[in-house]
Amino acid sequence: MTGEREAPVGLPRLLNAIPAHGAMSLAEHLSVHGEPPLARSRRARRGAGALIEEIEQAGLHGRGGAAFPTAVKMRGVAHARGRPIVVVNAAEGEPASSKDHTLLTGLAHLVLDGGVLAAQALGADQVIVCIPESSTASLQSVKIALAERQHASAGLPSIEPRTVPERYVTGQESALVNHLNGGPALPTFTPPLPFERGVRRRPTLVNNAETLAHLALIARHGARWFRELGTTAQPGSTLITLSGPLVYPGVYEIEHGASLSSLLHAAGGATAPLRAGLFGGYAGAWIDANQLPNLALRDEHLKPYGASLGAGVIALLSEDACGVAETVTVTRWLAEQSAGQCGPCVHGLDAIATSLEEVAAGTARRDAKQRIARLASLARRRGACGHPDGAIRFILSAIEVFAAEFADHARHGPCDACAGARELPLPATPRPAAALVG
Known about the structure:
Elements: H1 26-33, H2 50-58, H3 70-79, E1 85-89, H4 99-106, H5 108-122, E2 126-132, H6 136-148, E3 158-164, H7 173-180, E4 204-208, H8 209-221, H9 223-226, E5 237-243, E6 250-255, H10 260-266, E7 274-279, E8 285-288, H11 299-302, E9 313-318, H12 323-336, H13 343-361, H14 368-379, H15 387-401, H16 403-412
Parallel strand pairs: 1-2, 1-4, 2-3, 5-9
Antiparallel strand pairs: 5-6, 7-8, 7-9
């Protein structure tokens, strides 16, 4: 299952020929990537069933954070009863991420190809592209791309862009399905699951925008090509949103297993001494700056720190920032992002945020650290969704990495850096720049 176009060697792959400004037109897209292979035989759908096997051989895992095997998810939908629907998840509720926004604004046709190819393989008749309500640029880019494709849409699945609320939990696939069915964008965990009965009670494949962009290239160039980069356990390339004190923060495409040092070099290097790095976003974990120089961006190097790349986020913190203040600000925001469906999330995260605020202010009880640990143990693995688990991972890793700072705040209260601007991005602050991609 390979296309006629010569496969690109090395990097970039997804970001190949991405315009510095604006979007790649359909003509430019086809010039770079060629026609999607299944689109050339769309009436017979010849070879469509082979795509799932190709994806499995490629070892493609989801890029939305959970890293679930894409072929397994596709087979689950294919074996369910009813005509499927494909949902492109570009909700991107993670404030430190802008990779899906970059794909939709610059390379919408590649994402749409992936959605259509997945739909053809599953026999689906509709592709729904979920875009945050505030991302008008993404929505406009998708609409322009759809207008360009109208002449070639006969016999292909329909594609519909839909806006979704910009909340942290919206990107969970059951929350998207619930919203598309007319309910609130909140997770639901009552069986059946989306792959069995999702949008309009039909089997539903929910895949991240980056995952489907990779699928579009694997369909053209094959599993062996995809595995020419990366490691055996984590083949291929991935997109990273890199933020912090850097010359060129933004979205980068890396080979799985690349060194963090090489990524920072591509970003022009740090503009200030580093204190720590957050890996995987606000459901991820901190790693002390002393460990960063020799770090490789693959699971076996990140796992000992309790970290992973997750949804493709690396947020660096400078020594000028206060790790305690950053932790408190994000934790309070995470508590406010609760789906409001269970005690561990509603009460547990709020209580932890309050305790952290007291530590930062120097007004906490002596047993504050033990209290936070106890609250975390009560909330962990007991939520109705994964939100409290991710938040607790972030909090506990921060308490460990910034242990000296937390102890100092507990004794003396706020430090001079507490009054400074926060470095970690939240919706009220600008997202990491995506002007430079490489």
